[in-house]
Input
Amino acid sequence: MSRTDPAQGEPLMRIRNLDKSFGGVKAVDDVTMDLRAGIVTTLVGPNGAGKTTFFNLITGNLARDGGEVTWLGRDIAGVKPHRIARAGVMRTYQDLRLFDGMTVWENVLNATEYGALPIPEGRAARLRKRERIERVLERTGLADKRDTRALDLAYAERKFLSLARIMATEARLWLLDEPASGLDPNSYERFLTILREDVAQGVTVCIIEHNLDIVIGISDRIAFLDRGRLLADGDPQSVLNDPELAKIYFGDRA
Amino acid sequence: MEAYIFNLVNLIAIYSILAVTLNFIMGYAGIYSLAHAVFFGLGAYSSAWVAQHVSPSIFVSYPAAMVAAGAVSLLLALPALRVRGEYFVAASLGLQVLSVTIFSEWKSFTGGIGGVLAIPPVDILGLEVFRPAQFAVLSVIVLVVVLLVINALVHSSFGRNLRAIRDSESAAASFGKNVPMIKTISVVISAALAAVAGALYASYLSFINVESFTLDTSVLVMAMVIIGGTGTVAGPIVGAALLLLLPSVISYFDFLPRTEIGSLQQIIYGLGMTLLMIFRPGGIVGRRSGT
Output
């Protein structure tokens, strides 16, 4: 499937004045930004800045208090998470949420199975799906582990399985919640390669990441969140070099 | 002796169907229901009613039982599956308690406490099946068909979706799965197939009453699943056979006091289940650790 229809840089998802509070604490506060086609936007900010909440809001996992989110021009207020997913927005979770009792192969296969009831597929379609999954497992280094239960995988393998599930889908927007945290340097190179290849194929990515090397290595745009507010949204150099932001980001650790 | 053995075969086959269909939602979808005896009962009463008033043909009374149980399960599933798992257990318990009252009071349909008498034997293309040996062939064939249906479902995308939901509902939804819909369908399938066990039971015994469809039965079937091995293919059948054979085995030991056999049986069940959960939480057939 072609993922390239809107020109690079066109906004696929528009977020306007997004708000969410938990018991009086503003977790996401008046955030306005666009996620643009074929571009990697990285969300950075201290812990508790509202990054994961932001993902939960734009995937329908949480109901927003105010603001507007449109996907390909369509308002997705109140749309159920599975419908938003089917429309092409898929995510990973920081705590992975793999299908632990299923094998690697089943995890990836099942990520592509939306229908409630089994729909018979033609031989050609089955074969295409099989090849697609084989390819994903090759790229993520999980080909040897295809019959291993997700529960029995090592940490890095679990991280890659989380990514493999989303790679196998037709999703156009990937929301990745700390996909590289805790990876060793080899795995981390593999991760960057995968991401660059898929972005070159037209996938749009929004990624939450703490590791500044990865942030610099991958981002086309950086959005800086702090206490729910979007403090900056621009090209990596200008955001990272902003002394005010550096103070917020590193302030607690210095 | 022969009749005794065939009688056991029939009961084991019928309870195996109940255990297999409960395992379908418990083991694969993670939906714990304490109302399985309700669908067993609905199947029995509906098929009995249809056999008496419409036709005792297996192609009429058994499907009618499935439709009735499937429809009632929808009433449970639609509201209860939109909320978290624990609420479904509570809601199913509520349905179970409510249903026993209805089964006891709705005399025109269930015969009240007295039950339904003189249920005609099931008719298969003109052949009336009622002798234990003949019926054993029927009940085992039905069990095999139910097993094949469940097995096909479990190994299809539907089965993978159920296991995905069991492992992480939110991740399943994030991959486009309509979680409440899939869970609802699984409950309806489970209830409709449990009703087949009820239909077998009614046409085999030719007499049914509310005693067979109480909470005790729901708990017994759940125990069969857990003891045999939740989420396994053979487990529920092993569990059903074991729990149904236990009373006969105990009665062989002559030195045991006759009058205490009932309570002895309870002690053995309770002790066995506790020990099993400590040393083999996956059940007899299940994996040693985890699931």
About this structure: The mean pLDDT of chain A is 90.
